[in-house]
Amino acid sequence: MAKNEPTGNSDDNGPGTNYSKFIGIAFQMIAIIGLFTFAGYKIDEAANHATKWATAALSLTGVFISLFIIIRSLKN
User: Fold this and answer.
1) 3-class DSSP state for residue 51?
2) Is residue 14 helix, strand or coil?
3) At what angle do helices 53-75 and 15-47 cross, to 10 degrees?
4) pLDDT tens digits for the chain (76 residues)?
5) How big is the chain by its Cα radius of gyration, in Å?
6) Which H/E stretch holds residue 11?
7) DSSP annotation of 4
8) Is 32 in contact with 69 (CB distance < 8 Å)?
9) CA distance 23 to 17
10) Whole-structure pTM over 0.90, yes or no?
11) Rounded Cα–Cα distance for residues 14 and 8 (Å)
């Protein structure tokens, strides 16, 4: 094998690695928001709240936490 031939396992930033990075970010956001929303739903269900304040508050908290994590990971 010649020295100048690519081996196929180089560390370039091709389109495949960018897509997989952003798909991972999307799944991470979905998981965080979903877990916080589910926790809020269970709290509201257990407390028999007429207005679902815990669900609303925890889902917004999940959004803000996921955005914080995503912005922090994109800076690196």
Assistant:
1) coil
2) coil
3) 160
4) 556 655 555 555 666 777 888 898 899 999 999 999 999 999 999 999 899 999 999 999 999 999 999 899 888 7
5) 20
6) none
7) T
8) yes
9) 10
10) no
11) 12
